[in-house]
Write a sequence for this structure.
């Protein structure tokens, strides 16, 4: 069976597509057959994929109807799902029943934390998570972990007993790579070294 990862947050602009495309790029660079599924009506991830240069490690695109997760094509080893804003209720439960891991991107602002609180509380009560069939982790987006706002986000997540997998800084490198259909894992290591290091905890958690 394919290893499936859901990227989810009820708030738009939280960084879901950035996480989804870079994860797909990482697994493709490792030689896995990867499907990038886009459940978001904006289809941002699939638009990015359409611009991906052919010499780069190949990623299959997969348009998924919200609340109707289908089985990935035969031979798929890793599935990364980019979900829509406002995902909840039966649609959330349907997706959770099909995935192994859930990553929630959150920016360290009061507005993002307020918008995410109810979703995270609901998420940890979903059957798939309670039965430990799906595991949830959080990634701080566009953040400096040394700042007060990062500490406030850490405290917020500690109260919910959710692990913080890593902190991705606010850098134009993600924007520049995405514009060319690329990820950090497609760039020369010397150019992306600082930001690749920030992915270490995320990738280790996914590998456990």
């Amino acid at each position: 069976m394919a290893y499936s990862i859901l990227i989810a947050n009820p708030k738009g602009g939280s960084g879901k597509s950035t996480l989804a495309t870079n994860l797909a790029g990482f697994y493709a660079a490792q030689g896995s057959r990867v499907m990038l599924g886009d459940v978001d009506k904006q289809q941002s991830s699939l638009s990015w994929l359409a611009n991906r240069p052919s010499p780069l490690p190949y990623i299959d695109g997969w348009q998924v109807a919200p609340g109707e997760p289908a089985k990935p094509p035969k031979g798929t080893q890793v599935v990364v799902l980019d979900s829509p804003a406002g995902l909840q209720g039966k649609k959330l439960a349907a997706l959770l029943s099909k995935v192994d891991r859930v990553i929630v991107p959150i920016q360290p602002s009061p507005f993002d934390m307020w918008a995410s609180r109810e979703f995270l509380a609901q998420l940890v009560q979903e059957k798939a998570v309670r039965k430990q069939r799906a595991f949830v982790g959080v990634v701080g987006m566009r953040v400096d972990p040394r700042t007060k706002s990062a500490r406030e986000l850490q405290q917020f997540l500690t109260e919910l007993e959710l692990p913080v997998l890593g902190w991705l800084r606010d850098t134009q490198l993600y924007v520049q790579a995405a514009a060319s259909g690329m990820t950090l894992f497609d760039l020369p290591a010397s150019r992306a070294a600082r930001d690749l290091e920030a992915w270490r905890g995320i990738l280790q958690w996914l590998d456990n």
